[in-house]
Design goal:
Blueprint: H1 2-6, E1 22-23, E2 32-38, E3 52-57, E4 60-64, H2 70-76, E5 86-89, H3 94-97, H4 100-110, E6 118-121, H5 125-134, E7 146-149, E8 155-159, E9 164-169, E10 178-183, E11 188-191, H6 199-205, E12 210-214, H7 229-239, E13 243-247, H8 257-268, E14 271-274, E15 280-282
Parallel strand pairs: 4-5, 5-6, 6-7, 11-12, 12-13, 13-14
Antiparallel strand pairs: 1-15, 2-3, 2-15, 3-4, 8-9, 9-10, 10-11
Helix pairs in contact: 6-7, 7-8
């Protein structure tokens, strides 16, 4: 906790809307909240790592995608990694899954005994198993069930007393991928994962309190299966969400985040902010 208090908060981009009240370190006291453990696209910079989210609702803690040093980052936001409820892997591009073996290894060393369920697209179950098997992590005593998620709109992924997680396929080219929605009784958070603007994400996000949408590019790139900042805003407006946070921002845009936020606000018309890393946001 002390290390995270000493860390200087990232500077908010010029023109960015102030985020909802947030806290560093100890985590939110109650309700639905999230923290970005990273906010960059596939290539990190000195200031931003690859995108992943920790979501907390009551006693449920769900990690969505697993970038580098997951245990260190969870601890920096006040989360005991041994207490994770589940992991959701949206797809198997390296920046979204490469930290998974390190997470499982650390949990073994830390003495976790409860199984850690990992949910992923049905087409990625074997690949995630091979990734963990490469390091011999499936035979060390910690059960890590890898559970398939069907590529259907609004499919139920998991449910606890505090949180319901559903998913829908998105548009990421030849890579099967899932957008994720996390609901409590009166709050909802949607994470687009990597995608072009698509109707499936718009429908999944309808009426959500918060949308975290990828914004890889400043300008459209027809050769890529990603979104621009303005397109993220357009999806947020069409879905009627309450607030929009930008993530998975390409490294070439890290020096112009104010312009990124402004472009997204032009598409949305509502409250937009760049997601800052290692900071809790109440939904």
């Amino acid at each position: 906790m002390g290390a995270s208090r000493r860390a200087r908060a990232p500077r908010r981009p010029r023109g960015a809307a102030p985020p909802a009240p947030a806290r560093r370190g100890a985590g939110p006291a109650t309700g639905l909240a999230f923290a970005c453990l990273g906010s960059s696209g596939a290539v990190p910079t000195a200031a931003r790592d690859t995108t992943a989210l920790i979501v907390r609702a009551g006693r449920t803690m769900c990690l969505v995608d697993v970038g580098g040093s997951p245990v260190q980052k969870l601890r920096r936001v006040g989360v005991d990694p041994v207490g994770l409820t589940a992991v959701v892997v949206t797809h198997t591009h390296p920046d979204h899954v490469y930290g998974l073996p390190a997470l499982v290894q650390c949990l073994l060393i830390l003495g976790r005994t409860a199984p850690l369920p990992i949910y992923c697209h049905v087409e990625h179950v074997a690949l995630v198993g091979k990734l963990l098997g490469l390091f011999g992590l499936l035979d060390e005593g910690l059960k890590v069930p890898i559970l398939p998620v069907a590529p259907r709109e609004g499919v139920r992924v998991l449910a606890t007393a505090d949180l319901v997680v559903t998913a829908s396929p998105n548009a990421h080219g030849s890579m099967p991928n899932l957008a994720v929605r996390l609901d409590t009784r009166d709050r909802s958070l949607v994470y687009s994962s990597d995608t072009r603007p698509c109707a499936e994400v718009e429908r999944l996000a309808r009426g959500a309190t918060v949308l975290v949408h990828e914004a890889t590019f400043a300008r459209p790139n027809p050769a890529e299966w990603h979104s621009t900042a303005r397109e993220a805003g357009t999806i947020a407006r069409a879905a009627g969400v309450g607030r929009l946070y930008l993530a998975h921002v390409g490294y070439t845009a890290h020096g112009a985040l104010g312009a990124h936020v402004a472009a997204s606000r032009a598409g949305f018309g509502g409250t937009v902010a760049m997601a800052e890393e290692l900071r809790w946001y109440r939904v």
